[in-house]
Every structure is written in structure tokens, then in C-alpha cells.
Amino acid sequence: MKMKQKICFVALGSYPLFSRNEKLQYVGGAEIKQVLIAKELTKKGYDITFITYDEEGKKSETYSDITVI
């Protein structure tokens, strides 16, 4: 049995891209590219996790098969 490959992105500013937060203050191109890459990797069967920063968000959430911590 083949184990599912796991990838973790540490992108502290990417949380608003997942939460669809209307108060989006700043997200750079690197964060956008990381999320796009992550979405494509989930289509190929990878288990993706993002470590982000948000003062008000939950400790762990799932968006489109991507775990956001």
C-alpha cells in the first residue's frame, strides 16, 4: 500500500485566500502562487497543509481538501 505524500507550506499571510475574508489587507504574489500550487497538488493526490496566521480564525480548518492551521 502506497502512503499518501504530504506537503506543508508555511505561509503566514495566506489565510485570507482560504477564508475569503472581506477584510483582506495584503496578500502578495508568493502567497497566491503557493495556494494555486497546493490546489493542483491536491488534484494529484497529495495531502496538503498550510501553517498560517490569523488572530480570529479557528485553530484548524479545511478548505478544498487543504488543511489550514
What do you see in this structure?
This protein is 29% helix and 23% strand. The protein has a 4-stranded mixed beta sheet with strand order 1-2-4-3. By secondary structure, the protein is of the alpha/beta class. The protein has helices spanning 15-19, 29-43, and strands spanning 6-10, 47-51, 61-63, 66-68.
Which quaternary structure do these chains form?
A: single chain
Counted by DSSP, the helix tally is: 2
Q: What string, H for helix and E for strand, traces the elements in order?
A: EHHEEE
Average of pLDDT:
85
Helix content: 25-40%
Q: Key terms for this structure?
A:
single chain, 69 residues, alpha/beta, 4-stranded mixed beta sheet, 2 helices, globular
TL;DR of this structure?
The chain is built from two helices and four strands, in the order βααβββ. The protein is an alpha/beta fold and 69 residues long.
Please describe the topology of this protein.
Layout: E1 6-10, H1 15-19, H2 29-43, E2 47-51, E3 61-63, E4 66-68
Parallel strand pairs: 1-2, 2-4
Antiparallel strand pairs: 3-4
